[in-house]
Write a structure and sequence with these properties.
mainly alpha; Arc Repressor Mutant, subunit A; Tetracycline Repressor, domain 2; 2 domains; 9 helices; about 0% strand
C-alpha cells in the first residue's frame, strides 16, 4: 500500500517556486508553465528550478503532492471528529466544491494526462490516487463499524472505488462545464448514507427493547 505524500520542508526559494507553479497550473494549465515563467512569478533566478527540482515535470509533481498533503491533512482531521459519519460525509461533499474552486482537480488531472505517456510520472500520480484511497478506506471502515455492517453488506474496496471514480468524474465534467445529473447523484448518495444511519438506529432500538 502506497504511503501518503510526506510534507517536505522546502527552502524559501523552493517554496516560492512551488507557490508560483501552483498558481500557474491552476490559472493556465500545463501549457502555460515554463521554467522562465515560474521563476519570474516566484521572483527567483530560473536556475533555481533545476537546482531544487531537476526538471519542470518534477516541480509539477511536487506541486501536486504538496497540494494533496494539505487536503489530506484537512480530510483526516475532519474524519477524526467525534460526529456521526453522515455529517462527515456531507462536509466532505462540501469540500468538493471548495477544492474545485481552489483548482486542485485541475492540477491533479493535468498531471494524470501528462503521465499517460510517461511511465516514470504515472507511478507518482498513482501514488496520489492511492493516498486518497487510504483516507477513504479508513473513513468507510469506521462507518461500517458505526453502522454495524459486514464486509458483504458494505464491501470496502468497492465503496472506496465508487467514491473515487464518481468524484473524479464529477470534477472532469465540471471542468468541462457539464453538470447534468450531478445534483441528483450527490443527493442519491447522501440518501444512501442516511439509510445506513437509519438502519443502525432501528437496530439500536430493537436491541434496547430486547434488553
Amino acid at each position: 500500500m502506497a504511503s501518503e505524500p510526506q510534507r517536505v520542508a522546502w527552502g524559501g526559494g523552493a517554496e516560492a517556486l512551488l507557490d508560483a507553479a501552483e498558481r500557474l497550473l491552476v490559472s493556465e494549465g500545463r501549457d502555460g508553465l515554463t521554467t522562465r515563467r515560474v521563476a519570474r512569478a516566484a521572483g527567483v533566478n530560473q536556475g533555481l528550478v533545476y537546482h531544487h527540482f531537476g526538471s519542470l515535470e518534477e516541480l509539477m509533481l511536487a506541486v501536486l503532492e504538496r497540494f494533496t498533503q494539505r487536503l489530506i491533512e484537512r480530510q483526516r482531521a475532519m474524519y477524526a471528529r467525534a460526529i456521526p459519519f453522515r455529517e462527515k460525509w456531507l462536509e466532505a461533499m462540501g469540500y468538493m466544491e471548495a477544492d474545485l474552486a481552489a483548482g486542485y482537480p485541475k492540477v491533479w488531472l493535468e498531471l494524470q494526462a501528462l503521465g499517460w505517456n510517461r511511465p516514470e510520472l504515472r507511478s507518482r500520480v498513482a501514488g496520489v490516487n492511492e493516498a486518497w484511497r487510504n483516507v477513504l478506506r479508513d473513513a468507510f471502515a469506521e462507518a461500517r463499524d458505526e453502522y454495524g455492517l459486514t464486509e458483504q453488506q458494505l464491501p470496502l474496496e468497492a465503496v472506496v472505488t465508487l467514491v473515487m471514480t464518481f468524484t473524479q468524474g464529477l470534477d472532469v465534467e465540471r471542468l468541462s462545464g457539464i453538470t447534468t445529473g450531478h445534483a441528483e447523484l450527490v443527493e442519491w448518495l447522501n440518501n444512501w448514507i442516511l439509510m445506513l444511519e437509519q438502519g443502525r438506529e432501528v437496530r439500536d432500538d430493537d436491541d434496547h427493547q430486547r434488553s
